[in-house]
Amino acid sequence: MRIEDLKIKIEDELKGIAEISVREPNVIDVKVSRDKIVEVAEKLKRMGFDHVKSVTAVDYPGERFEVVYVASSYEASLSYFLVSLRTSLPYDDPRMSSLLSVWPSVLYQEHEEHDLMGIEFEGNPRMGERLLLPESYEGIPPLRKEFKVRVEGIDA
Q1: CA distances for 21 relative to 27, 47, 70, angstroms
Q2: Could you tell me which residue ranges the NADH:ubiquinone oxidoreductase 30kDa subunit domain spans (predicted)?
Q3: What are the strands of the beta sheet with 82-90, ordered from one edge?
Q4: Which CATH superfamily is domain 3-155 in?
Q5: Which residue of 37, 56, 114, 138 has the smallest Cβ count within 10 Å?
């Protein structure tokens, strides 16, 4: 299968609910609103994208967060391709539905983004638990750009 053929197939499946583009030779970028992300993830899974390789978040200070899921497939015809599923969250309301019901592989990755970026993944049972930070940690999540590193009395 060619990337152009897969793009057309995804566009047909997600018509009217997502923006689709080819970002790299083997990556299809799917941008969707947070209220449609579960629906889109379910459709991508039915198309053969059966697992998520990574979940990450980007902090655009004071503006928004962008959460990115990189989905792939173990099917031979799709295994060369990646789908970058992304959504934006308002900076003052960084929450969205978890994709755990679609892809179980997101369990700990969403948990990491919650712990380090402060994004709430509704439906993920790990929210409220610490994974990488001590249970006593309070304050700005350490991967947010507004977090200040303190070293021997120097603010960096």
Answers
A1: 9, 17, 14
A2: 30-150
A3: 19-24, 27-31, 82-90, 64-72, 51-60
A4: NADH:ubiquinone oxidoreductase Nqo5 subunit (3.30.460.80)
A5: 138
Q: Which of 95, 106, 124 is nearest to 69 (CA)?
A: 106
Q: H or E stretch including 4?
A: helix 3-13
Question: How far, in Å, CA of 51 to CA of 45, rounded?
Answer: 8
**77 class by beta-carbon count within 10 Å (0-12 exposed, 13-18 middle, 19+ buried):** exposed
3-state secondary structure of 124: coil
User: Can you tell me the distance from the alpha carbon of 1 to that of 28, in angstroms, rounded to the nearest whole number?
Assistant: 13
